[in-house]
């Protein structure tokens, strides 16, 4: 039993208890199924808080390890190895935090096949947590691929009109990148004789030219997931078709698996190659920031607008990571969390209005602030967070990233223009996000108000459940905005360690 | 407590309450405001809470100013909490970012605090009366609460701006006030300035926010340069380090900062948002868009005095920007018909005076003018608000007392109407012509119906025109004298001509609004405002009269006060300068009387300057077509490029063509055609077909997914995991 009571094993696999219960419950009692999933996810969140309490923030190394030999054939040493450090602890918490929120958001939105939906959602959490904690490449790959399956079904069964297309595209696109990563993993395991990430980092000594190939192979999988421009084509399809809760998790957590992959594997495993690639990665990141923001502005569909904004926001994260200094990387990690919070909240809000109106066409909206004041106010706060208003979370992340990227202009990036153009993206963020807010909540009353009335009910403001769904996100939007230091303290030592590895490689 | 004890006590530790007090006020109104408003005394309660919160900030400001004074003029930094600490300072890599929430209390910041909270509180009180009527004219009484919440939020943000101890904390307030500006310009977000259903007000709000963000980019870049050169954002650290930095770097920093100033303080080329900002309720125009927020740029340059004084080239650019703006905006003000638009362009022009002053290194003159301008421009805007309300009352009176719908004469210059009004999307519910209570062509003769407002307005006008001994005379004269003595001849003449125009357009306004005969029935029936509106105005009027005493030549009270914080040189009174500017101002007023006062405008008559000035006047009337130019060059192209990227590049090319046709098509071609025809090997054939079939199958299976399939999948995953873990456990 001790094995299961190890904190990281417990938090990762606890959702399976929920899966077991869900399997045994009758599919007719929808509320019971919902509550089961919710309580499971809340308990998992509780366990993750226990993990946090055990976490020693001043220790830069991997902690709370659960490590066992697993598959030892033909000289392979594949291990079951879960551990957390400053690079991943916040992402673990983000996952356990967003899952119950997402489940709560499906309360009335998902009425069909609730049992299956909850099963997939709960399974998905296992995969995501495993991705952020696995320290063995093989184990990591299994969790990585495993997350695809539930998401594939979530989009394919509960999605919009073109859900099949979107689900297959999502699946194949991600698979294509992962295959290259699998090859690189096998190469590492065979040539270096280990699949263990910390061991491989300590071992080092991969020749620079091979590093570059390995870097590219890993980057292929991660860049598609992020998604970095120009590999983003699956994203608008997946987001637009996915059910709200799916979008929240997709934007909030799944995309972070890509950016996380870069800091966990690409930077420390192949530091020389990463330094060589940094200006190119930064270039793609900045193109993504500008391109995503411009394309976002031209969307007539609220959800698609938010989806493209992710391309822009994740560009900031990538820019920060490849600035390779404490400001850039810490900002990048914090911005992963911030994007999860604010874009997650944006998808929730868009989903909540969609539930009432069944349209996301911005043209039919307008003047809703007067009719739904609470809704409008919450949307405004989230929009401001997304566009990086100082005092809210987005600013802290974007500012530190830009500061780091500017500083890297005289170092690894070679030019301050990356930071300069990225900073211009901040203006463009204001353009698209204010455009969306205006079209929905300001101006004269849109035609949708009458349209809804024709169906015999009026537009209503948020109800208690919806507000409860959003309030936790808002708390963190303000907390990180005003007092981010506790969050920085959690990630700082591990980032410093990573920066030291990179700096050693620079000389 | 003994007097001696209380004197030795300082109140520096109260500094955070500058922000907490208004935040507390807004929280009370957010939580209880709705409940208040259901009571008869609700509006008074909401307004009183907000005014008390702002008043508390004023009391704190006064105590802090006293503390600065009592400690011999030396300021103090008050630490509140850590903000962002990144990087390890002990490693000595010199890259650590150390940012705290620290308040800076010195003579410069307390001056701003007193202006913001002092004028702010008066405007809060005024707004209790103003908004009471405004929400009724606009038919949405529930919005009363929201107004005071936003107003308190503004005070909080402005306090962060002026009291921050680092450039970054200043920036938090800087963008925070931008947000409040957005919220309050778009306060009547579902209508235009005439109350018709429209996107106009919300467009104006968005324009303000985005234009300001363009400026903020400059501020941010200045910040990045600063941090990587000096490893800090703290004022003192930066100023000390800057002395030994290369001048090129300081020029870059100061000029990027100027971009931020141009955005916030409405200077060329980013001033275009401010006239549109008049869409906000009048108290907002007075507080945010005249007295306080827009002067933030002037404060920023004064605060950065140690940087600017290092680089005369940058100072020259700043001074010329200000002087050019001062004159340019003054010419536009001459051609406006909207009472608030005239004042808006006047504000841009006066901000130009201040920016020119601080650009020349005349920081005291700039700050002095900032203070007096806050008094008399707030007075003018609020009086204009009183005029507008008076006309609306008259209009209302007519509509409700059997006079039928009041007719407004046809003026025949629809083309000259402002942007907001040309974008009208006439609601089918309002077929009758919409009355514009802010159009000076609807006014005339108001000195009889609104005598109190008239006298107040006149005082504001004389102060703005720079007539001895009103406040504006002293402060404007100090700027001109400094320009003259420091050898900024170009700046001096630009500003002097601008001062002439100032007196002229204000004279024009006085004659058009208060003299002659009413040109509209509403003006004939205009009613004077209540004391809750006029009493705060009297306070401001008093300050507009005596405000010059702050820094009288020879006494230099204000100079000595600021001397503790920034290096200053005492401004000297130059008699010839004073005589020239006074003569020009008087001449301008006389000319305005000859044109607008002697033969008052008749209803429907075009502006008498239109004919003699011809194209020149058309340019002034249409704001020199700058908005149109920006739209054609920047806005339209941005929209066009976005649409092109989104529709053509991203969707049709990348999404549809490349992914669907090229990738998926090549795959199909490979599996169906190429392998069938050229590779006659059954194995490959089957493999390729199999892959193709598999994709089809997956999609097909999804379409007819049965419950059992999904469950068995979940069950198999569960079993697999259990097996693996069990193996580990038992091994």
Characterise the protein shown here.
The complex is a heterodimer of chains A (507) and B (731). Chain A has 507 residues and is mainly alpha-helical. Chain A has 21 helices and two strands. Chain A has a domain at 276-507. In chain A, strand 1 and strand 2 (78-84) form a beta hairpin. In chain A, helix 13 packs antiparallel against helix 14 (326-357), helix 13 (302-323) runs antiparallel to helix 18 and helix 17 (393-407) packs parallel to helix 20. By secondary structure, chain B is mainly alpha-helical. Helix content of chain B is 71%, strand content 3%. Chain B contains 30 helices and two strands. A two-stranded antiparallel ribbon of chain B has the order 1-2. In chain B, helix 16 runs antiparallel to helix 23 (531-546). Chain B is globular. The relative contact order of chain B is 0.07. The chains are: A mainly alpha (507), B mainly alpha (731). At the A-B interface, helix 2, helix 5, helix 6, helix 7 and helix 12 of A face strand 1, helix 6, helix 7, helix 28 and helix 29 of B.
Key words describing this protein structure:
heterodimer, A: 507 residues, mainly alpha, two-stranded antiparallel sheet, 21 helices, 2 strands, B: 731 residues, two-stranded antiparallel ribbon, 30 helices, globular, disordered N terminus
Summarize the structure.
The complex is a heterodimer of chains A (507) and B (731). Chain A has helices at residues 2-5, 7-24, 30-54, 89-105, 114-133, 137-158, 163-191, 197-203, 208-225, 234-241, 244-269, 271-297, 302-323, 326-357, 368-371, 373-386, 393-407, 417-441, 447-454, 464-482, 485-506; strands at 63-71, 78-84.
Oligomer description: heterodimer
Strand content of chain B: under 5%
State the end-to-end distance of chain B.
Answer: 79 Å
User: What spatial form of chain B do the alpha-carbon principal axes imply?
Assistant: globular
Number of strands of chain A: 2
Helix and strand topology:
The complex is a heterodimer of chains A (507) and B (731).
Chain A: H1 2-5, H2 7-24, H3 30-54, E1 63-71, E2 78-84, H4 89-105, H5 114-133, H6 137-158, H7 163-191, H8 197-203, H9 208-225, H10 234-241, H11 244-269, H12 271-297, H13 302-323, H14 326-357, H15 368-371, H16 373-386, H17 393-407, H18 417-441, H19 447-454, H20 464-482, H21 485-506
Antiparallel strand pairs in A: 1-2
Helix pairs in contact in A: 2-3, 2-5, 3-4, 3-5, 4-5, 4-11, 4-14, 4-20, 5-6, 5-11, 6-7, 6-11, 7-9, 7-10, 9-11, 9-12, 10-13, 11-12, 11-13, 11-14, 12-13, 12-18, 13-14, 13-17, 13-18, 14-16, 14-17, 14-20, 14-21, 16-18, 17-18, 17-20
Chain B: H1 3-8, H2 17-37, H3 42-70, E1 76-86, E2 97-105, H4 107-137, H5 143-163, H6 167-185, H7 200-230, H8 235-242, H9 247-264, H10 273-276, H11 282-291, H12 296-303, H13 305-308, H14 312-334, H15 339-359, H16 363-400, H17 419-422, H18 446-449, H19 451-465, H20 471-485, H21 489-514, H22 521-524, H23 531-546, H24 557-563, H25 575-597, H26 610-613, H27 615-621, H28 626-678, H29 682-703, H30 707-730
Antiparallel strand pairs in B: 1-2
């Amino acid at each position: 039993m001790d094995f299961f009571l190890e904190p990281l094993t417990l938090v990762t696999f606890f959702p399976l208890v929920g899966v077991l219960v869900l399997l045994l419950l009758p599919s007719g009692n929808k509320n019971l199924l919902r509550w089961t999933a919710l309580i499971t996810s809340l308990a998992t969140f509780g366990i993750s808080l226990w993990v946090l309490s055990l976490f020693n923030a001043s220790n830069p190394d991997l902690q709370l390890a659960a490590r066992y030999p697993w598959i030892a054939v033909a000289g392979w040493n594949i291990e079951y190895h879960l551990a957390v450090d400053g690079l991943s602890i916040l992402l673990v918490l983000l996952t356990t935090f967003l899952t119950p929120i997402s489940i709560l958001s499906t309360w009335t939105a998902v009425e069909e096949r609730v049992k299956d939906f909850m099963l997939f959602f709960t399974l998905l959490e296992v995969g995501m947590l495993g991705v952020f904690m696995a320290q063995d490449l093989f184990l990591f790959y299994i969790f990585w691929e495993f997350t695809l399956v539930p998401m594939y079904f979530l989009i394919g069964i509960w999605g919009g009109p073109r859900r099949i297309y979107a689900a297959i595209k999502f699946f194949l696109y991600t698979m294509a990148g992962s295959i290259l990563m699998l090859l690189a993993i096998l190469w590492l395991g065979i040539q270096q004789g280990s699949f263990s990430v910390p061991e491989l980092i300590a071992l080092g000594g991969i020749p620079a030219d091979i590093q570059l190939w390995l870097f590219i192979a890993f980057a292929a999988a991660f860049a598609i997931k992020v998604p970095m421009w120009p590999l983003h084509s699956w994203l608008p399809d997946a987001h637009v078709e996915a059910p709200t809760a799916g979008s929240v998790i997709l934007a909030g957590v799944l995309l972070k698996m890509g950016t996380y992959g870069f800091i966990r594997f690409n930077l420390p495993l192949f530091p020389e190659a990463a330094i060589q690639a940094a200006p190119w990665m930064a270039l793609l990141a900045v193109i993504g920031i500008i391109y995503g923001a411009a394309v976002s502005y031209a969307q007539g569909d609220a959800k698609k607008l938010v989806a493209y904004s992710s391309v822009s926001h994740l560009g900031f994260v990538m820019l920060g990571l490849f600035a390779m200094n404490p400001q850039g990387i810490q900002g990048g990690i914090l911005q992963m969390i911030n994007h999860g919070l604010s874009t997650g909240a944006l998808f929730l809000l868009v989903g909540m209005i969609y539930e009432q109106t069944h349209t996301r066409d911005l043209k039919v909206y307008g003047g809703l602030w007067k009719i739904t004041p609470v809704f409008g106010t919450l949307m405004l706060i989230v929009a401001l967070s997304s566009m990086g208003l100082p005092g809210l979370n987005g600013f802290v992340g974007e500012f530190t990233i830009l500061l780091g990227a500017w500083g890297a202009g005289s170092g690894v990036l070679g030019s301050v223009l990356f930071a300069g153009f990225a900073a211009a993206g901040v203006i463009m963020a204001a353009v698209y996000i204010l455009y969306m807010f205006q079209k929905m909540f300001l101006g004269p009353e849109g035609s949708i108000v009458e349209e809804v009335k024709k169906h015999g009910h009026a537009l209503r403001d948020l109800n208690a459940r919806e507000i409860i769904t959003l309030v936790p996100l808002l708390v963190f939007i303000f907390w990180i905005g005003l007092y981010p230091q506790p969050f920085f303290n959690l990630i700082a030592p591990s980032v410093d360690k990573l920066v030291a590895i990179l700096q050693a490689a620079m000389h | 407590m003994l007097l001696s004890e209380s004197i030795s006590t300082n109140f520096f530790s109260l500094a955070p309450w500058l922000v907490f007090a208004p935040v507390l006020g807004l929280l009370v109104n957010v939580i209880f405001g709705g409940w208040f408003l259901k009571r008869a005394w609700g509006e008074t309660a909401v307004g009183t809470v907000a005014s008390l919160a702002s008043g508390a900030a004023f009391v704190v400001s006064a105590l802090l100013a006293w503390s600065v004074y009592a400690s011999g003029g030396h300021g103090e930094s008050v630490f509140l909490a850590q903000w962002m600490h990144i990087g390890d300072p002990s490693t000595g890599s010199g890259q650590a970012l150390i940012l705290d929430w620290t308040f800076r209390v010195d003579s410069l910041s307390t001056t701003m605090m007193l202006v913001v909270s002092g004028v702010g509180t008066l405007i809060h009180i005024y707004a209790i009366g103003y908004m009471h009527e405004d929400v009724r004219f606009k038919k949405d009484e529930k919005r009363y609460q929201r107004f005071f919440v936003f107003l308190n939020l503004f005070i909080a943000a402005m306090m962060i701006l002026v009291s921050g101890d680092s450039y970054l904390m200043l920036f938090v307030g800087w963008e925070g006030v931008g947000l409040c500006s957005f919220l309050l310009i778009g306060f009547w977000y579902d209508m235009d300035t005439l109350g018709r259903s429209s996107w106009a007000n919300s467009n104006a709000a968005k324009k303000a926010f985005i234009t300001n963000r363009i400026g903020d980019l400059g501020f941010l870049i200045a910040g990045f340069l600063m941090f990587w050169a000096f490893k800090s954002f703290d004022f003192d650290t930066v100023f000390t380090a800057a002395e030994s930095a290369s001048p090129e770097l300081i020029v870059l920093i100061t000029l990027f900062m100027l971009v931020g100033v141009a955005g916030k303080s409405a200077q060329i080329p980013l001033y275009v948002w401010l006239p549109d900002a008049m869409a906000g309720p009048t108290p907002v125009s007075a507080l945010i868009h005249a007295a306080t927020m827009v002067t933030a740029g002037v404060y920023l340059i004064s605060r950065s005095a140690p940087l600017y004084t290092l680089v005369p080239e940058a100072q020259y650019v700043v001074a010329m920007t200000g002087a050019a703006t001062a004159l340019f905006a003054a010419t536009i003000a001459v051609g406006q018909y909207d009472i608030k638009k005239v004042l808006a362009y006047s504000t841009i022009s006066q901000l130009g005076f201040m920016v020119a002053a601080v650009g020349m290194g005349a920081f005291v003159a700039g700050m002095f003018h900032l203070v007096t301008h806050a008094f008399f421009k707030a007075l003018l805007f609020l009086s204009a608000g009183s005029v507008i309300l008076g006309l609306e009352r008259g209009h209302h009176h007519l509509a409700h007392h059997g006079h039928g719908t009041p007719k407004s004469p046809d003026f025949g210059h629809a083309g000259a109407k402002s942007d907001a009004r040309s974008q009208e999307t006439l609601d089918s519910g309002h077929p009758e012509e919409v009355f514009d209570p802010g159009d000076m062509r609807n006014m005339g003769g108001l000195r009889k119906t609104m005598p109190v407002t008239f006298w107040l307005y006149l005082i504001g006008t004389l102060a703005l025109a720079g007539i001895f001994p009103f406040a504006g005379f002293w402060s404007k004269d100090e700027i001109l004298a400094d320009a003259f003595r420091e050898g900024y001849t170009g700046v001096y003449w630009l500003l002097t001509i601008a001062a002439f125009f100032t007196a002229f357009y204000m004279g024009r306004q006085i004659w058009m609004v208060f003299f002659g005969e009413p040109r509209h029935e509403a003006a004939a029936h205009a009613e004077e405002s209540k004391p809750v509106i006029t009493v705060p105005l009297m306070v401001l009027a008093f300050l507009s009269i005596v405000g010059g005493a702050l820094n009288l030549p020879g006494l230099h009270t204000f100079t000595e006060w600021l001397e503790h914080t920034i290096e200053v040189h005492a401004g000297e009174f130059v008699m010839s300068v004073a005589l020239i500017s006074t003569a020009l101002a008087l001449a301008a007023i006389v000319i305005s009387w000859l044109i607008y006062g002697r033969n008052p405008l008749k209803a429907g008559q075009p502006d008498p300057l239109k004919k003699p000035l011809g194209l020149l006047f058309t340019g002034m009337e249409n704001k020199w077509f700058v908005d149109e130019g920006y739209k054609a060059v920047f806005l339209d192209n941005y929209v066009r490029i976005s649409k092109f990227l989104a529709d053509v590049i991203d969707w049709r090319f990348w999404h549809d063509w490349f992914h669907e046709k090229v990738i998926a098509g090549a795959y199909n071609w490979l599996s169906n055609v190429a392998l069938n025809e050229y590779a006659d090997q059954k194995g490959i054939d089957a493999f390729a077909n199999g892959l193709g079939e598999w994709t089809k199958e997956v999609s097909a299976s999804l379409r007819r997914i049965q419950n059992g399939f999904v469950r068995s999948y979940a069950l198999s995953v569960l079993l697999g995991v259990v097996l693996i873990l069990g193996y580990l456990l038992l091994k």
